[in-house]
Amino acid sequence: MSSSGERFVNASFDPEVRGFLHRAGNPRAALVLSHGAGGNCQAPLLIELAEAFANTGFTVLRCDLPFRQSRPYGPPGPGTAGRDREGLKRAVNVMRSEVPGRIFLGGHSYGGRQATMLCAEEPKLADGLLLLSYPLHPPRKLAQLRTQHLPGLFTPALFVHGTRDPFGSIEELDSSLRLIPAAKRLMAVEGEGHDLGFKGKSRRDGLAAEVLKVFHSFFQI
Q: Measured between alpha carbons, how far is 177 from 183 in angstroms, rounded to an integer?
């Protein structure tokens, strides 16, 4: 497997499933990872996590959400969320046909939020969620909580969150997670913001290994 994975496109679906696939020999599980509102599947955070998971037996798909497939730059529009969730569903179904075993779904910020909303709509779609920097509310707008769907989330979820994230403090997120009836765990990343230490050329050494350790423990992989 190359450091960036192999290009993967399934044009038989609408929306298309498009991204990079990191194959594991004799895979025991699969993971679909999506990006935030300002990024794409080439985000360094997603690449590092995908490679780390692939090295422990996961086949990982880093996928571009439909809004990013439509245009290379800019945030999603107000009417794209439903189609983005449909794209995530397609990606999960493709991976289910590719890999035996458990299927996990997750992503960074907007991608992770759409994953939680999708699983609240379809509880049996994925076996677990990996949520990086969940955008609990817009910066400085603490009253605009994005928690309405959380009481309907019955998919186990691991939240990875920086202690300096302006989209929600650790205390705020911990309080909101009590709304979720499924098993959940919050992993705090000390001193990091919404990017979890991956901004520009900067990288937080050891983050992928830390996430893997907690993920394996929480989901008993």
A: 10
What is the C-alpha radius of gyration for the chain, rounded to an integer number of angstroms?
16
Domain boundaries, the chain: 6-219
Burial class (CB in 10 A: 0-12, 13-18, 19+), 78: exposed
pLDDT (tens place) for every residue of the chain, 221 residues total: 334 589 999 988 888 999 999 998 889 999 999 999 999 999 999 999 999 999 999 999 999 999 999 999 999 988 899 999 999 999 999 999 989 899 999 999 999 999 999 999 999 999 999 999 999 999 999 999 999 999 999 999 999 999 999 999 999 999 999 999 999 999 999 999 999 999 988 899 999 999 999 999 999 98
Query: Which one is the CATH code of 6-219: 3.30.565.10, 3.60.15.10, 3.30.230.10, 3.40.50.1820?
Result: 3.40.50.1820
Cis peptide preceding 15, ω within 30 of 0: yes
H or E segment to which residue 85 belongs: helix 81-98
92: tokens are 């999960």
Residue type, 100: P
Q: How far is CA 184 from the centre of its chain?
A: 15
